[in-house]
Specification:
- It contains 8 helices and 8 strands.
- It has 204 residues and is α/β, with parallel strands linked by helices.
- It has one domain (2-202): 3-Layer(aba) Sandwich (Rossmann fold).
- The protein has an 8-stranded mixed sheet with strand order 3-2-1-4-5-7-6-8, with helices on both faces.
- α7 (119-132) links the parallel β4 (105-110) and β5.
- The longest helix has 14 residues, at 119-132.
- It is globular, with a radius of gyration of 15 Å.
- The protein binds S-adenosylmethionine (SAM).
- Residues 15-18, 21-22, 45-48, 51-52, 66-69, 72, 89-91, 111-113, 125 line the site of S-adenosylmethionine (SAM).
- S-adenosylmethionine binds next to α2 and α4.
């Protein structure tokens, strides 16, 4: 399972962004923070080998996961047959949803390595999230614990502060390789939010 991930990393390190799949502790904590309600459309961005996918695969409602790498998509499909794994990029989320008759998603879970992406790439994926999330939607996205120290990681958090009504940071998840945190962003603001940045709070 992890060998497939390592190979994908070797093929395209900037897209995969990590050398090891997320652990169960992180995956469960993210899904719990997303507070899924029956019937809601839940989308995951960047399934990889499917650790986060596995944590929401029994959700009662539409479950869709986007993974552009065909080998990784096949892995997560085999692991989580209840989730529709689509070989597509986050930037095409609107088309993926509308092709399935959905106007918006209520929850978006992300494993995308935003903190190592250049600004244009961060923005393109985040634009897709903000425009597809319902008004009271929740976006949960993990990042490695050291990434807020990186310029791109700081920029990503500041962008989240501008584009959501409320932003919380999880506690440190040490039982993960490497240790990770995740952000819980509520209420997408689109471009309107750019003028009204809020402050990220640490989740109690
Ligand atoms: C850090 S890995 C996380 C994988 C898995 N969710 C986990 O937690 O172990 C990032 C994943 O995002 C995928 N990815 C990269 N760019 C993407 C994009 N634009 N849209 C959707 N997925 C993307 C990669 O192929 C990779 O599987």
């Amino acid at each position: 399972m992890s060998l497939a991930f390592l190979r994908a990393f070797a093929r395209d390190p900037i897209s995969v962004g990590g050398i090891w799949p997320s652990g169960e502790t992180l995956a469960r904590a993210m899904v719990e923070a997303a507070d899924l309600r029956p019937g809601q459309v839940v989308v995951e961005l960047g399934a990889g080998t499917g650790p986060i996918t596995a944590a929401f695969q029994h959700h009662r409602g539409p479950r869709i996961s986007l993974e552009p790498d065909p080998t990784l998509a096949a892995r997560s499909r085999a692991r989580c047959p209840g989730v529709e794994i689509v070989e597509a990029r986050a930037e095409t989320l609107h088309a993926v949803l509308s092709n399935r008759g959905h106007l918006t998603a209520a929850r978006v879970l992300s494993g995308l390595p935003f903190a190592i992406w250049p600004e244009a790439r961060q923005r393109a994926a985040l634009d897709a999230v903000v425009s597809c999330l319902s008004e009271d939607g929740i976006f949960v996205t993990f990042t490695y614990a050291h990434s807020p120290l990186l310029p791109a990681g700081r920029r990503f958090r500041q962008t989240l502060e501008r584009r959501f009504r409320r932003l919380e940071r999880s506690r440190l998840v040490l039982k993960n390789v490497p240790p990770a945190i995740f952000y819980i962003a509520r209420g997408p603001l689109g471009d309107r939010g750019m003028e009204h940045p809020i402050r990220c709070r640490t989740r109690p």
